[in-house]
Design brief:
The chain is of the alpha+beta class. It has a domain of 74 residues: SpoA-like (Surface presentation of antigens (SPOA), Roll). The chain is 26% helix and 20% strand. It contains four helices and four strands; from the N terminus they run ααβαβββα. The radius of gyration is 36 Å and the shape is elongated.
C-alpha cells in the first residue's frame, strides 16, 4: 500500500509541467497526505528467570570448551639488528636472555599464564607445567 501511494505521488509530480508549478515555481504537487496512528501489540513484561543451578552453569562452561586459543612456549628472547640476523647461518648460536635450566613461559592468547620445564616425549618437545600465574598477576598484566 505504501508503494502504491508513493507511485501515485510520483506520477502526479511527473505529470506537472513547468507551467503547472504554480506561482511560486517550487514544483510541489498538491497531493494530500494522511497519517494514521500505528497500533502495536503489547510487549511481554515478564522477564525470564536466569537459572543458577549447577546444570546450567555446566552448560555455560561447555559452550566455551571448543573455542580455540593460541598457546606459545617462550624459552627466551633477544634483540638483534638486521645486520646480525643476515649473518646467521647453519650452526650459528643465538644467545637468549635466560640461563640454561630456567623455566619457559607459557603464553595463551598473548597473556602469560604459567611457567614450566621443557621435556621430550616420544621425540616431541613438550612442557611440564611447574607454576601457574595467580589471578592477581593475570589481572595486572591486562
Amino acid at each position: 500500500m505504501i508503494r502504491q501511494s508513493f507511485l501515485r505521488v510520483k506520477e502526479r509530480k511527473q505529470m506537472n509541467s513547468p507551467s503547472d508549478q504554480g506561482e511560486t515555481g517550487t514544483g510541489r504537487s498538491d497531493a494530500n497526505v494522511t497519517a494514521s496512528p500505528v497500533e502495536l501489540s503489547p510487549i511481554d513484561q515478564q522477564v525470564a528467570e536466569v537459572k543458577t543451578d549447577a546444570a546450567s552453569q555446566e552448560m555455560n562452561l561447555n559452550m566455551l570448551l571448543d573455542i580455540p586459543v593460541d598457546i606459545h612456549v617462550e624459552i627466551g628472547s633477544t634483540r638483534a639488528s638486521i645486520r646480525d640476523i643476515l649473518r646467521l647461518g647453519v650452526g650459528s648460536v643465538v644467545e637468549l636472555d635466560r640461563m640454561a635450566g630456567q623455566p619457559a613461559d607459557i603464553i595463551v592468547n598473548g597473556k602469560l599464564i604459567g611457567q614450566g620445564d621443557i621435556v621430550v616425549v616420544n621425540d616431541t618437545f613438550g612442557i611440564r607445567i611447574s607454576k601457574l600465574v595467580g589471578v592477581q598477576e593475570r589481572l595486572q598484566s591486562i
